[in-house]
Amino acid sequence: xxxxxxxxxxxxxxxxxxxxxxxxxxxxxxxxxxxxxxxxxxxxxxxxxxxxxxxxxxxxxxxxxxxxxxxxxxxxxxxxxxxxxxxxxxxxxxxxxxxxxxxxxxxxxxxxxxxxxxxxxxxxxxxxxxxxxxxxxxxxxxxxxxxxxxxxxxxxxxxxxxxxxxxxxxxxxxxxxxxxxxxxxxxxxxxxxxxxxxxxxxxxxxxxxxxxxxxxxxxxxxxxxxxxxxxxxxxxxxxxxxxxxxxxxxxxxxxxxxxxxxxxxxxxxxxxxxxxxxxxxxxxxxxxxxxxxxxxxxxxxxxxxxxxxxxxxxxxxxxxxxxxxxxxxxxxxxxxxxx
Length: 339
Prior knowledge:
The protein is an alpha+beta fold. 47% of the residues lie in helices and 9% in strands.
């Protein structure tokens, strides 16, 4: 079961970071687009102090980053991680304070490990979750929302979820976000839709069938989300699997500089730049151990059956030979400056 779940990594299990490319000329002598901002993100509103604002921020972060993996309706169908209800039930006992819960949750999510895990059954079934790029303040907001709501109750989803969305959820354009943060929220929402549909394919068709799903459905689903969000969204790479995902000159500059920073052990940052009347954001996708079964060393990490299917679907595949913590590709989000 755990092997079959590894195929979801690009959509569900990745942590996103980014960097600023150097000011160089491309092969045609054109200057790179003007940079308008560079910041570290997991997209969220500005720091909140009002209790209601903290809960609103926690809900927003969870809807963008958590709900697609940790089922909020209590259903155990297609699970790839424990439900939020199960997490709260395990972490919060009658005597547990909010500060104690937040401390334990933040500690685990910032650096997931077997030693810190409080749900041994879940780690055995699903494995250790990937490290996510949340700030301390963001994780504290998530912890506050989980602790202060009755998300562990069986009827919470049916009776309260839509009310919570009306109370706390606001559109990305209504939030006080930079273009860098907006772009990441758009990418995360798209990732969530891809992930949910891919989970269904894994459950009904298995890993090999899910590869076919990615080949046929990933583009239509991405385009559908782009239309709904009224932005342009794509994933590209310097070592693309699908020829349509090949990075252009500007994107390749970004990727090359990001790899240099990663090789030096430096933290990479997101990048946005102006292009005509748009702002374009780049959001790198890093590999982790789970990626290796589809993007690692052929015949050892990538099993022969999987490798055969990849070669069948992608004759010009160049997305093999990766190691954990390498740059796999980037989300590219183009936003209208008027928004």
